[in-house]
Amino acid sequence: MATTTEAANGIRVAEEVKRPYVLVLVLLAVITLLEVQVPNLPAWIGIGEGLVIALLVASSVAKALMVALYYMHLRYEPRILKLLPVAPLVFVVFLALVVVLH
Amino acid sequence: MDEHAHGPAGAHEGHHGSIWPFVIALAGAFGFGGLAVQFWPFILAGIALLAVGVGGWLWQDSQGVSFALKGVFHDKPFGHAISARKLGMWIFIVSEIFFFTGLISAGLSLRVNAVYWPTPGTPEFPLNIPVTAVNTFILIASSFTMAEAVHAAFHDRPARMKVFLAATLVLGAMFVGVQVYEYTRLLEEALTPWPNPFRPELGTFGTAFYVQTGFHGAHVMGGVLGLLFLNVKAWRGRPWATRAETVEIVGLYWHFVDVVWIFLFPLMYLIGR
User: Fold this and answer.
1) Confidence category of residue B40, pLDDT binned at 50, 70, 90
2) pTM above the 0.90 mark?
């Protein structure tokens, strides 16, 4: 549940009553621990390199989203600020396509 | 602009323009441009401009005239509750996303065109995954302490804020320290930023590795210096240094550097070709 807090210095800020910082920290650490095992998966269970890349890209995106939404407070920001960092991601997709198609 | 509306915290603090950020940016243009074309006069000019820029900034700060961080602004771009400074940091972060996207894409281009690329999990892989995994935990933990520092600042708990801010500085410095240690080991094991006669096959990988992790490391280093400055000011009781908006803006940059590492770590250490 998000509420708006009037901080003592006069700046209004949207903050969660129970901030999930510790939970995010634990999730980031656990995902990283799992990520480090991923390069061994082809030897252990015989998955292909493509699946290794897909798993690591997915885990990285999940971790980056957690940092951006909770630690950088994007979740509580006005929509225009939420959209701002999305703009250059169009460029990311374009460059990723160029590399993949290459 | 109502700079003195918030009692003692706002007193005697005003906003002043400053030439020094521009000089430091110019130093970057000359220094990195010189490195790119291997032109020593430009590199030396960049180093000199950096010294002048940082020196001028610290001198101006010692005169009690600082740029950007003092005073409270009530400008609300787009009619929303975003301060002009916070929006400024976000726009800077967007420009940094463009920069790192280009850098990582250049690395991927090198990778797909390289004759040889080492595979993680094999004996010939030169990087130390366990050590860097621990370093990744350190950077993630520093993001957590930074978020707690911002939270404490917003809830007017300066003592708690200062402890978490100091913890962030220590963790950030540890990350840089471990990276310097790893670089030293890798250089000894003949992983160099350019091809070498001992392990010539690693030339392209070495270039991609040092350029990407090096630029990230330089960003962490900049963040550590910023945190050091903010810590000193906060512990010396400067009101602007414990103000929520100041800590939040420094925190935004710090978290961004963490996000870049979240992508760089699997790219360089865990994914083969």
Assistant:
1) very high
2) no
